[in-house]
Specification:
The complex is a heterodimer of chains A (332) and B (266). With 332 residues, chain A is α/β, with parallel strands linked by helices. Chain A contains 9 helices and 18 strands. Chain A is 28% helix and 27% strand. In chain A, helix 5 packs parallel to helix 9. Chain B has 7 helices and 15 strands. The N and C termini of chain B lie far apart (56 Å). Classes of the chains: A alpha/beta (332), B alpha/beta (266).
């Protein structure tokens, strides 16, 4: 393989546009490529997405590899793995970035092992080491209790990045870039795990990951009825309701509501934590929130170390009053 | 149905955050005093997935655990939950590995076990949260893999799985043998029964050394790493929480609303 050079972004799409995570990765990748004095390229894998190449250029890419094939319409591990192996053979990047999504989390480690290199998943920060020019990959470990800076010895250095950890550039439609078509050359018999059907989760109201306001309840909420009160507040603030692990295990809320290392990762403007202690495993799912507000009867609860505003008291009494007062203030 | 579950002994992730300490000189975590280690909770989801299949159609479950100082009472938990055998890869040479060296050693141990239809791993482990060992084992053994799984059904030499996605889930079909990483959505792992705990006491784990699985010291543990840990640190918390008070919890609640409005958070 030729000398590895440049930064490559694996793009994901949503509703025929680049996904938010992809624009974030392009923003971060642009900076890394500039620091290295190298090129930023992007790879689009899918079906009928050639138009998006221009969008990737507008968001910072110098070159876009497009692998367009009806067999790539949906993500399937074996197919995407084969295609990415081919693209990386051609592009020979130093760095490959993907989103910490259900695709990136599947593809990055498998690809790393296939290419005999390593991946670091769920990174929060990426930087180029001024001396070695290697990628410094910072990610939470031990359920958010600590962070590790990891360096991959081999090329490409593969990392997945958490949502909302990076900032996209302002798209510039006048930016110029090169578009390279790559033939998928897929052998259908090599696709072992087959995706049969996609099932979209029914979400009433706003999706947890997209919400600007998240109301999260813990073990102390005590029942499904308790969570109905959090729903009322969420409705008022146009937010979404999440939970720590115990309410999910007890089926007071669906498993999909879980926030934390074992659940979803959110980074809203406002995070209202109700009757939860703030274990590290939970905090690693919400520590990117801009403002954390905590209501808990235990003044020693860890959540008060994380929160900007706190209330020590019984949520059953405090929360209805809080909601009522907000209604009044927001109406006025 | 022969099933293998990869498990791991870890520092209890539910231990109070204040008990978590790092030795900065050694870039190492200091095991908290007075807090017993546990089986990695994600691995327990893997055990639960295998047990659900065993409940439905029978089968044999072998748990494999890699590490040093593995406390027998802890690593025997899968047996107490209903697994049949426990193999420990236990040697100092296995220590200090990354996803590469760990996946390699586990893959070689699985090769030695020989007969398997499904290998289960947690989607990641609660200590390093690397999330790669499952996919790595699959690549090394040349098996198809399905990750982030919340439901498994096996019939006619195939597994039908529900894989959690960002939008919901997808239905995936894969021929056996395959590797599956299990996500928390599979549901809470069962508690061991008294009978299970008593039964587990009678099962002696099998201990394998590197030579038993045909690996060189250079391929495993710290020597087999492809990732360098440059720094391990605890993020500094600002710890500046404004406490909002009131004569009663109700009043405090109303005051909190007023405060958030005042500082324009809402």
């Amino acid at each position: 393989m030729a000398e590895n050079k440049g930064v490559l972004i694996f793009c994901e799409t949503k509703e025929n546009k680049l996904a938010a995570i992809t624009t974030e990765l392009l923003g971060c990748g642009r900076k890394l490529a500039d620091d290295l004095g190298q090129e930023l390229s992007a790879v689009l894998v899918g079906s009928g997405l050639a138009e998006l190449a221009k969008e990737a250029i507008a968001y910072g890419a110098d070159k876009v590899y497009v692998v367009d094939d009806p067999q790539l319409k949906d993500y399937q591990t074996d197919a995407y793995l084969a295609v990415m192996e081919k693209v990386i053979g051609q592009a020979a990047p130093q760095i490959l970035l993907m989103g910490q999504t259900s695709i990136g989390r599947d593809l990055a480690p498998a690809l790393a092992f296939r290419l005999k290199t390593a991946a670091q998943l769920g990174c929060l920060e990426l930087a180029i080491d001024p001396q070695s020019k290697k990628l410094l990959q910072t990610k939470p470990v031990y359920g958010g209790n600590a962070q590790a800076v990891l360096v991959t010895d081999s090329f490409p250095q593969i990392a997945t990045v958490r949502a909302k950890a990076m900032t996209p550039l302002e798209p510039d439609a006048a930016r110029k870039g090169e578009i390279v078509k790559v033939d998928a050359g897929l052998d259908p018999s090599k696709i072992r795990a087959k995706m049969l059907e996609k099932v979209a989760e029914k979400v009433e109201g706003i999706k947890l990951e997209d919400a600007e306001v998240v109301i999260c309840g813990g073990r102390g909420i005590g029942s499904a009825e308790g969570f109905a009160q959090l729903e009322e507040l969420a409705k008022l603030l146009k937010g979404a309701v999440g939970a720590t692990r115990p309410p999910c295990d007890n089926e007071w809320v669906p498993a999909g509501a879980q926030i934390g290392l074992t659940g979803k990762i959110v980074a809203p403007e406002l995070y209202i934590a109700v009757a939860l202690s703030g274990s590290s495993q939970h905090m690693s799912g919400c520590s990117g929130s801009k403002t954390i507000v905590a209501i808990n009867k235990d003044p020693e609860a860890n959540i008060f170390r994380e929160a900007r505003f706190g209330l020590v008291g019984d949520w059953k009494k405090a929360l209805p009053a809080f909601t009522e007062k907000l209604k009044e203030l927001l109406a006025g | 149905m022969n099933m293998i579950v990869c498990i791991k002994q870890v520092i209890d992730p539910e231990a109070p955050p204040a008990s978590f300490k790092i030795d900065p000189a050694g870039n190492k975590v200091v095991p908290p005093q007075g807090v017993s280690p546990v089986i990695d909770p994600y691995a327990e989801y893997g055990v639960e997935a295998a047990l659900k299949i065993k409940d439905a159609q029978g089968g044999k479950i072998t748990a494999v655990s890699l590490g040093t100082n593995q406390l027998r009472d802890i690593v025997k938990k899968p047996l107490a939950m209903g697994a049949d055998e426990l193999i420990l890869l236990e040697d100092e040479a296995f220590d200090g590995g990354d996803s590469w060296s760990t996946a390699y050693a586990l893959a070689m141990a699985i090769k030695k076990i020989g007969e398997y239809d499904i290998i289960f791993c947690g989607r990641e482990a609660s200590d390093w949260n690397a999330g790669q060992v499952g996919s790595g084992i699959a690549e090394i053994l040349g098996l198809p893999s399905v990750t982030l799984v919340k439901k498994v059904e096996v019939a006619g030499g195939k597994a039908k799985l529900e894989r959690v996605t960002d939008e919901g889930y997808e239905l995936v079909e894969v021929p056996l043998p395959c590797l599956v990483t299990v996500s928390n959505e599979i549901g809470e792992p069962r508690y061991p029964t008294i009978k299970g705990i008593m039964g587990a006491k009678k099962i002696e784990p099998v201990v394998w050394k590197p030579a038993d699985i045909g690996v060189e010291a250079s391929q495993i543990g710290a020597q087999g790493r492809r990732t360098k840990l440059q720094k391990l640190f605890q993020p500094v918390r600002e710890g500046k929480c404004d406490m909002v008070e009131g004569e009663s919890p109700e009043e405090a609640g109303a005051n909190l609303a007023a405060k958030l409005r005042e500082v324009k958070v809402l």
